[in-house]
Amino acid sequence: MTILTSRLSLGQGPRKVVVKDTIDIAGFPTCAGSAALADAPPAVAHAEIVERTLKAGYHIVGKANLHELAFGMTGINAWAGTPENPRYPTLIPGGSSSGSAAAVAAGLADIGIGTDTGGSIRVPAACCGVYGLKPTFGRLSRQGVMPAESSLDCVGPLAHDLHVLIAFMAAIDPHFQSSMEGSAPVLGCLSVSAEQAIWASIEEQLSLSGLARGDVTLPLMAEAFEAAMVIINRETFRACEALLATGKVGADVDQRLQAAAATTDAELKEAERIRRAFTAEVDAVLERHDVLVLPTLPHFPMTVQDAFSGHQDLKISSLARPFNLFWASRLIDPS
Question: Where do the Amidase domain residues begin and end (predicted)?
Fold first, then answer.
């Protein structure tokens, strides 16, 4: 099982942490799972999230593999190695934070630190059967995280145990609160299309919770997914364009980057319009509900064999990706 790209020994602590290899650790190269960055020089300083993790007393044990350049949802990586899904070995681990999810699922670490631009924490967490949190955009600093500029990307943790995840967030973010004060939260069950077995599992848990609930809709969900795809395509191409000239980018990511190059200014302008409209739509729903409930995945993950045969499944992020658009817009345009 290829999960960790390198073994480290930084600090001591009661909990073990692996760090996605798009995040700088001083003295080690940040390769982002790509042969095109195999000769990258060692980082000169820790990313801020690494500094906070070490200061909180956690022990970093390795850097985790990922879908190359964090630009894919399957988690496969022909060059750096594909992390095996410990719970479901025939299925993809999910991407792009595949190694972070697989490491905690395998018990190699208590916490995996990943990044999420369009579901890249939540999707692999669901694929590997662990917990994953995409915090509010900008809550955890992206200083020292690749790519340097992004209007969608968020740093966040994964864990096998929910209480361990909550404790980590509280340790690195003094403003983090894991519960709401006052009355019990009102749930808004979002009407989305997902396989029946997935919805049945959610319905069972909702019944056990005993919390008040109502049904809600977000008519712009599908458009928000497409808009988020436009924005990630433009931003990732700008960040990685120079790497294409090396000829060392893997075939699947090379293909996506070449397609992303065709993103037009008109498409980006329309995506930004949808960003604002979708944010207003979600804000309106959250005025009446404290929590939105929906599946992470619309369907079960594909097999590793299918992924290596060239199949892609960007739609696996269709229920997660729109909310990167939402939170980013809240920060960029707080009005």
Answer: 17-176
